[in-house]
Structures are given as structure tokens and as C-alpha cells.
């Protein structure tokens, strides 16, 4: 592990050639990796454009690190191809891929100064001394570390050390920078701050980044596109907005926003809408139009922030507020829907209009916020 991203004894001197990459820095086709019976990564495919910030998001064990390690070259795929620029790198040694890495452990050289640590990849590539000094200076400045060049890693905080690791990865302008939970070891406040910093450096320099996290909020804040991973598969690869507004599976709806699911059956369609007869309360829920045949059993996924609690005679069902918790500007309410024992519907409403415990309410939602998922028969 200790040499990731810096061990390159016989490195190809790529110089700035890598910075001239155009349109398509990285493409992955049908990547697969098994360990015995465990399918760690299953047919993962994606194309990443120059300057994109991509995140692999998923629970522990979903295949994020394995996918990243195959792209990096530290783990050999069973099958599939990885292309960087227009070069097939699938069977190439890591140092020949010329990618940058930042990991959760900072992995700085303890005996070297900050300046020397950041200079290391350039020294390795035989870049002239003056040029090294200039580029290291520039990079440290971007990361807010000017004046720290003479310190040793142990004289820095965790956040500063991670910034040095970031500088070392980006100082030679690799075509793609890979980061595996780089903020995982830091406390929440520092993590929030560094998220913003990494994002703004990425945008300023137009870097192409693949970032791994299990934290939905971190993924939503930082990414242009997110690959939601589950059991080694990419469940959906989309913009944060698409994932949140148009999840393609109940898993994505739940993972990104903790959606409520309400069961029913498609009754009919109008020009713009699909009407669903709800199992529990018998109410009619209006969703935006979905291509689902009448009679199809469905789950309607609706985010807590997209449900409204109005007067009891409004909406697609009625219920009683069982819980109401103030959380800053919001009230989180749990509503027991009439007619059955389904789990409480979870609502998030502005505090000013918050419902109170015991209140009778009617629940409604904008049809555009209702995502319908067919219920697999027998599943
Ligand atoms: P993540 O980074 O999303 O937590 P990983 O890519 O590390 O997930 O792991 C995916 C799956 O592959 C897990 O089931 C994990 O136990 C398994 N796995 C990963 N690396 C190895 C390995 N070297 N040997 C055996 N199984 C592994
Ligand atoms: Mg991992």
C-alpha cells in the first residue's frame, strides 16, 4: 500500500503529454472481478468525460474499491477493458497508467518535507529543478498550504496532511485522479470543509476525478455524476439530480433520499399522468406518466421532503400524525395512514407549517415527484 501513486522506479516520462487528453479520458467496459465465489465487480461499464467529477457510491462491500483498484492497475480484472485516452491500459502496470491517487491513509513520506513530498512525482519524472519549485509552489498555494513547504508531515494536522497528499497527486497533472474515501479518517467539520476545497480545486484546474465514498451527502455535494453501486453492479450512473428525481430502482430511491414506498396497482392513464389505486387506504395517487400496464402492482417512491400534510379532506390518503420532531428549519413527521398497518409515512416540512402530534391530515404530492416501480412477481 505504501507506494501507491508514487512508486514508479522505471516510469515512462509522460511529461505533460497526459494533460493534452481530449474528450474521453477514461472508459471502462464490462469490468468483472471475482474472488472465489464472491463476485466483487460485475460487468461494470462507464464512460467519463474530461473534467468530470465522478463518484462511486455504495455500501461497504459493494465493489467500489475493487473497481477503483482495477482502474489504477493494482488489481487485475477477470475480464473487461479499461481505456485511458485512447490507450488500452487493462493489462498495463500501475506506474505506466500515469494516474494520480489519494487514499484514506495519507501515505506521505515522514522523513521528507511537504515540499519534497509534493515534488516527488516530478523528481521521479526528471522534471528540471526550477520547474519543480515553480509547480510545487503553485500547487501548495492552490491547496492553501503556502508557507508549509518546510514542515514534516507529523507537524501537520490530519486535514493538512490530506491536502498534501492531494497536492502530490495533482502536481503532475495526471489525466485522472483516483480517490478512495480520502476524507474517511477526518471529523465531520473538517470533512465538510475539505469537500468544498477539493471540489473547487477540481473545478479550477478542470481535473477529472473518480472519488469513492459510502456517504450519500458527500457524493451529492461533490459529484457531476454518481455511480450507485450495489453487490458489485452499477445500479444507476447519473447526475445527482437525476438519481434523486428519477431513480430507476427502489434501491436508488431509498439510498439517495430514504424514500417512502406506498403500494398499489396501476388503475389507468391520462395524457400526462398515471393513476394508482393504493392498497392500504384505497385512495387514488396521481403520478407523472409511467409506461406501466394497467393492473401492474407497483411501489410508489416519494421522498419525505416531497410529501405535504394538508387538511384531512385533501390528498390521496388521510392519517394521523404520530410523531413530529423539530430539526432546525424542518419538522420531521411520521404519519399513520388510515386503513392498515403500513410503516409510518415520513414527511419533512418547513418548521413554520409543521403538523403537530395527534393532528388529522391529508397527504398529497406533486405528480412529478412520484416515482413508480413495478413490484417483481414472486419477489
Ligand atoms: P467496497 O470498497 O465497496 O467496500 P470492495 O471492492 O472492497 O467493496 O469489496 C467488494 C467485495 O469483494 C466484498 O465482498 C469483498 O469482501 C470482496 N473482496 C475485496 N477484495 C478482496 C480480496 N482481496 N479477496 C477476497 N475478497 C475480496
Ligand atoms: Mg472500499
Observed structural traits:
about 375 residues; alpha+beta; Rossmann fold; OB fold (Dihydrolipoamide Acetyltransferase, E2P); 2 domains; six-stranded mixed β-sheet; five-stranded antiparallel β-sheet; 9 helices; disordered N terminus; binds adenosine-5'-diphosphate; binds magnesium ion; Polyamine-transporting ATPase; nucleotide-binding; ATP-binding; P-loop_NTPase; transport
The biggest beta sheet reads: 6 strands, mixed
Low-confidence stretches: 1-21
Number of helices: 9
Lateral strand order in the biggest sheet: 6-7-8-3-9-10
Strand content: 25-35%
CATH level 3 topology of the largest domain: Rossmann fold
Number of separate strands: 20
Total number of distinct structural domains = 2
Provide the CATH top-level class of the largest domain: Alpha Beta
Spatial gap, N to C terminus? 42 Å
Annotated CATH architecture of the largest domain: 3-Layer(aba) Sandwich
Q: What is the share of helical residues?
A: 10-25%
Unique bound compounds: adenosine-5'-diphosphate, magnesium ion
- What do we call the CATH homologous superfamily of the largest domain? P-loop containing nucleotide triphosphate hydrolases
Structural class: alpha+beta
What is the residue-averaged pLDDT? 89
Radius of gyration, in Å, reads 25 Å
Order of helices and strands: EEEHEEHEHHHEHEHEEHHEEEEEEEEEE
Sum up the overall morphology in one term: elongated
